[in-house]
């Protein structure tokens, strides 16, 4: 039962992230949306992999690795947004400033 | 096995050296690392040629617990192509990315990023674990995005961010497919997945992974990020981004559809992939015709040239895999991958030389460049021959193999795409060629040392030699193929 709850929460997080990605052009919001999708996937992964009888260590290892990868991607993305804001004075991509 | 490990660790060590050593020693250390990694890639190819695929289980752990690395003919061949392009780019970057030309920031950052990209590309060519490949793809993306942004100009940063958005979306799609695959089968090893019991979620998992990889490969209609990202980067970085980076996700796509889950290759799915490829050939070619800057023409041509490779899916995938023409189609697609990599890198390096010599890559400013810098004109012409698919180049061999397979299998529509793509390539490359070889001389360009001009020429000659000496690479690519057809066409 709790596993189903985890999996559903994961799916909901992915859905929120996809909505944020499509509906919010502000770059920081998009980075947060990517992180939401990633976290949702990892939560779903953990729940799906824990269904079996024995304890499977591989998903834990993979999730931790995935979190590290997501962190480094977010760090680079935030760095680029800061550089974009410094050089062009806006946190939107050039042709998307108009549609808020 | 030593060669396999060396190809993965040497560029990483060199990347560390390029950051940590004192300023004067950085570039020599990076060049030394490049030379050693080139040697390791060639050595690996020789070992694969002599003894067959090289396999290594990391830390002695067998799959499904551990990660297996396996260098087959395909992976080793791409490794050699990557090594040749990387070495040429490193030699060109010695001039072009010098701190006095490109600025201290780009002059420092280029070397570690290039070497990191090399290490991760090599990992993508040999890894057999889908999650390991996810991590590798992410690392490739991070170094590639940083290379786009390296100049620090506002438009380069915007192009890099747009690239990162697409690439992260692609990674997450791929990751979702990986999660579903693990949940259904408890393994992510490509060889173990090939022997799995089919599960209902497999089609969705493969679809998600494929969609993610298509975004990363910039297949039509996911190509919109590519031209601006590739042309915003400094020319040596553009050469890496255009010639090499899409090939990693492409290889994983081939491994998924031909090795891990060939049973899911339904005709409709294969047709969809090839149709997108065909549209990329036409649309990329048309957009390349409309550009006024050399780097943008070359970047849009990448969209078109990558499209050809997707014709392999209906010609050699699914039930077609057992037919006599499958080996030819499959090898033709790999030949296209290899020859495009060499020719495209040569073109971007020529564009880089023109940017340094003239300060511009507008076609109107490049008139008569072949007179002032004859070797660059010759290199661009040779690379164009490969991209147009004229004999005796590697591009010709690729298109000949694909076209023979298209006729033999009765799918002549793909042969039309190949012919139309060749004509479009001739049209969009005619404009830069006409400008470069124009009679009147341009305003006196800056002098460029001959040793620098010779670098793109070397790559262009290699891309043509791939067609002249095609029998050895043809046999090499069959090493370790999942189901090699006994008789090729």
Automatic annotation (TrEMBL), chain A:
InterPro entries tied to this protein: CPA3_antiporter_subunitC, NUOK/Mnh_C1-like
Membrane-spanning intervals of the chain: 30-50, 62-85
Keywords: Cell membrane, Membrane, Transmembrane, Transmembrane helix
Membrane topology field: Multi-pass membrane protein
A Pfam family annotated for this UniProt entry: Oxidored_q2
Top-rank taxon, per record: Bacteria
Subcellular location: Cell membrane
Cellular component per GO, a single term: plasma membrane
Family: Belongs to the CPA3 antiporters (TC 2.A.63) subunit C family.
UniProt protein name: Multicomponent Na+:H+ antiporter subunit C
Organism expressing this protein natively: Roseinatronobacter thiooxidans
UniProtKB/TrEMBL annotation, chain B:
Transmembrane segments: 73-93, 105-125, 131-151, 163-184, 204-226, 238-258, 264-290, 297-317, 337-357, 369-391, 411-430, 451-474
This protein's UniProt keywords: Cell membrane, Lyase, Membrane, Transmembrane, Transmembrane helix
Top-rank taxon, per record: Bacteria
GO biological process, one term: ATP synthesis coupled electron transport
Cellular compartment(s): Cell membrane; Membrane
Gene Ontology MF terms in the entry: lyase activity; NADH dehydrogenase (ubiquinone) activity
Domain NADH:quinone oxidoreductase/Mrp antiporter transmembrane: 127-417
InterPro entries on file: CPA3_Na-H_Antiporter_D (IPR050586), NADH_UbQ_OxRdtase (IPR003918), ND/Mrp_TM (IPR001750)
Topology relative to the membrane: Multi-pass membrane protein
Record carries keyword Glycoprotein: no
GO cellular component terms, A-Z: plasma membrane
Family from the record: Belongs to the CPA3 antiporters (TC 2.A.63) subunit D family.
Record's function text: NDH-1 shuttles electrons from NADH, via FMN and iron-sulfur (Fe-S) centers, to quinones in the respiratory chain. The immediate electron acceptor for the enzyme in this species is believed to be ubiquinone. Couples the redox reaction to proton translocation (for every two electrons transferred, four hydrogen ions are translocated across the cytoplasmic membrane), and thus conserves the redox energy in a proton gradient.
Protein name according to UniProt: Formate hydrogenlyase subunit 3/multisubunit Na+/H+ antiporter MnhD subunit
Species, as recorded: Roseinatronobacter thiooxidans
């Amino acid at each position: 039962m709790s596993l189903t709850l985890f999996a559903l929460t994961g799916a909901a997080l992915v859905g929120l992230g996809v909505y944020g990605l499509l509906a919010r052009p502000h770059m920081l919001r998009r980075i947060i949306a990517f992180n939401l999708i990633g976290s949702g996937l990892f939560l779903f992964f953990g729940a799906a992999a824990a269904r079996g009888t024995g304890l499977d260590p591989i998903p834990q290892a993979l999730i931790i690795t995935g979190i590290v990868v997501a962190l480094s991607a977010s760090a680079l993305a935030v760095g680029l947004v800061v550089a974009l804001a410094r050089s062009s004075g806006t946190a939107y991509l050039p042709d998307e400033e108009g549609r808020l | 096995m030593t060669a396999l490990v060396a190809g993965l660790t040497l560029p990483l060590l060199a990347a560390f050296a390029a950051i940590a050593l004192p300023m004067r020693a950085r570039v020599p250390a990076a060049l030394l690392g490049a030379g050693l990694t080139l040697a390791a890639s060639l050595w690996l190819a020789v070992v694969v040629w002599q003894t067959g695929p090289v396999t290594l289980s990391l830390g002695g752990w067998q799959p499904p617990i551990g990660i297996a690395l396996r260098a087959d003919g395909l992976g080793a061949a791409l490794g050699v192509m990557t090594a040749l392009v990387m070495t040429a780019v490193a030699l060109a970057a010695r001039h072009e990315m010098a701190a006095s030309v490109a600025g201290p920031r780009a002059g420092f950052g280029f070397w570690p990023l290039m070497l990191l990209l090399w290490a991760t590309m090599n990992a993508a060519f040999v890894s057999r674990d889908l999650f390991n490949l996810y991590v590798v793809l992410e690392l490739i993306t991070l170094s590639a995005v940083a290379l786009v942004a390296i100049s620090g100009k506002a438009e380069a940063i915007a192009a890099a961010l747009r690239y990162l958005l697409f690439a992260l979306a692609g990674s997450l799609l791929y990751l979702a497919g990986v999660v579903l695959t693990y949940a259904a089968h408890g393994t992510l090893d490509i060889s173990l997945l090939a022997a799995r019991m089919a599960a209902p979620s497999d089609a969705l998992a493969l679809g998600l992974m494929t969609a993610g990889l298509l975004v990363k490969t910039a297949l039509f209609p996911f190509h919109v990020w590519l031209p601006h990202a590739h042309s915003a980067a400094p020319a040596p970085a553009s050469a890496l981004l255009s010639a090499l980076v899409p090939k990693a996700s492409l290889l994983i796509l081939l491994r998924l559809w031909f090795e891990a889950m060939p049973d899911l290759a339904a005709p409709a799915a294969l047709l969809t992939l090839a149709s997108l490829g065909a549209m990329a050939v036409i649309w990329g070619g048309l957009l390349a015709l409309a550009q006024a800057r050399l780097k943008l023409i070359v970047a849009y041509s990448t969209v078109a040239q990558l499209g050809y490779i997707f014709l392999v899916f209906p010609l050699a995938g699914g039930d077609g895999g057992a037919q006599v023409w499958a080996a030819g189609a499959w090898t033709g697609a790999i030949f296209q991958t290899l020859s495009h990599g060499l020719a495209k890198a040569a073109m971007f390096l020529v564009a880089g030389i023109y940017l340094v010599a003239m300060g511009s890559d507008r076609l109107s400013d490049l008139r008569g460049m072949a007179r002032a810098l004859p070797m660059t004109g010759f290199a661009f012409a040779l690379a164009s021959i490969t991209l147009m698919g004229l004999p005796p180049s590697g591009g010709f061999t690729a298109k000949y193999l694909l076209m023979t397979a298209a006729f033999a299998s009765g799918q002549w529509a793909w042969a039309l795409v190949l012919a139309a793509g060749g004509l479009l390539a001739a049209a969009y490359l005619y404009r830069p060629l006409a400008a470069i070889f124009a009679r009147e001389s341009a305003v006196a360009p800056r002098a460029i040392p001959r040793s620098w001009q010779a670098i793109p020429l070397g790559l262009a000659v290699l891309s043509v030699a791939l067609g002249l000496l095609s029998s050895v690479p043809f046999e090499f690519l069959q090493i370790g193929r999942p189901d090699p057809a006994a008789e090729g066409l």
